[in-house]
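FAQ

Q: What does a record look like?
A: Structure on top, sequence underneath. For example:
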């Protein structure tokens, strides 16, 4: 890790301002809707390509804030994540209302526009929910649930907190992408695996309390109610077309989430110590990226090595790790996401890096077959 930056500067709004860039996506969405035509592509062009270009010129940010900084110094960072749920909700349903009542948008334009809305609800909404679900205040956890329900992926909270963080890098974690596994095989596998593992994890917690899985203490009841509520609003606001557009943006949001999951841990596995025991999770078990602009957009999600090391650490305090402590991505998530959609190109770029990671950290492991095929014993 690099040196800690100057204390107390972090509490200023000016320091937090770059992380508020996500708000600019809302007016871009409305420009797309009002202008129509090729303007409906502005949102994916902005998030995928513009930030990739800015990354080139902005360079890296390898500085670290003091991890002991208290929440009282982080208000401006917390605020953007808390207010995003109502902003996103109003924007999404207002957009459904608008496009189902205007006559200048054709079918392909509405499809493109709500593909872009899915970019917002996935790249920003689910990402912010990920930050919020790790925190203790109830308001933040509720905002996380609301954001996930708008993407029809509420079970992600249970899967992420109860399965992924505990079993990352082992065969029991559905979202640890396996070596040589292309994204197009990974995506349908995790859609089923995450929902199943999330429900089993919640049922197991209830069983330890002597309660059945159908008990109302199971958050899946809340997940279902929130999702049905949002589907109902979409139908009331925009009829069957509005409902279809809502489902479209949700699918795109889920796709974005799982694309990021794929990138974050591709090919990285924890060492099996025997008898179902695995080494503790370390920074080396997540890909790290220090690209400045994409970390602004993604509220430091690319400092994923530290997030798994300290899951409840708030995003402005996440630490950057150098190549001696964590594997490094060659580009930020926007570029890596584009590359991942072409598996041969992805393997050409990433497989040599995975093999180098194995030589660096686990030179004593001679047979990687059980790790590649996820055939090691499940962790106890």
């Amino acid at each position: 890790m690099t040196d800690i930056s100057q204390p107390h500067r972090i509490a200023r709004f000016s320091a937090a301002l770059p992380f508020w860039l996500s708000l600019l996506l809302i007016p871009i969405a409305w420009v797309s809707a009002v202008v129509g035509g090729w303007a409906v592509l502005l949102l994916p062009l902005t998030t995928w390509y513009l930030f990739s270009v800015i990354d080139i010129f902005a360079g890296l940010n390898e500085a670290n804030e003091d991890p002991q900084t208290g929440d009282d110094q982080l208000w401006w960072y917390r605020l953007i994540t808390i207010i995003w749920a109502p902003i996103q909700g109003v924007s999404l349903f207002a957009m459904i209302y608008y496009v189902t009542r205007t006559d200048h948008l054709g079918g392909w334009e509405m499809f493109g526009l709500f593909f872009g809305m899915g970019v917002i609800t996935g790249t920003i909404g689910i990402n912010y929910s990920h930050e919020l679900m790790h925190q203790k205040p109830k308001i933040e956890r509720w905002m996380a649930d609301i954001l996930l329900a708008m993407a029809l992926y509420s079970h992600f909270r249970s899967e992420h907190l109860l399965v992924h963080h505990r079993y990352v890098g082992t065969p029991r974690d559905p979202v640890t992408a396996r070596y040589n596994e292309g994204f197009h095989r990974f995506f349908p596998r995790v859609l089923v695996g995450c929902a199943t593992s999330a429900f089993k994890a919640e049922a197991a917690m209830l069983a330890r309390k002597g309660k059945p899985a159908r008990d109302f203490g199971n958050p899946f009841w809340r997940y279902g109610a929130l999702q049905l509520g949002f589907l109902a609003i979409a139908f009331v606001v925009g009829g069957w077309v509005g409902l279809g557009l809502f489902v479209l943006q949700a699918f795109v949001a889920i796709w974005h989430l799982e694309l990021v999951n794929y990138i974050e841990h591709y090919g990285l596995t924890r060492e099996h110590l025997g008898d179902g025991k695995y080494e503790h999770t370390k920074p080396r078990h997540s890909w790290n990226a220090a690209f400045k602009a994409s970390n602004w957009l993604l509220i430091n999600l690319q400092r994923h090595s530290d997030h798994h090391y300290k899951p409840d650490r708030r995003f402005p305090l996440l630490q950057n790790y150098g190549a001696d402590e964590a594997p490094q991505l060659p580009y930020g998530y926007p570029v890596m996401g584009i590359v991942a959609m072409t598996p041969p190109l992805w393997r050409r770029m990433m497989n040599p890096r995975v093999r180098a990671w194995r030589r660096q950290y686990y030179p004593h492991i001679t047979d990687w077959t059980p790790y590649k095929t996820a055939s090691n014993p499940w962790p106890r």
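Q: Is there anything notable about this one?
A: Residues 9-372 form one domain.
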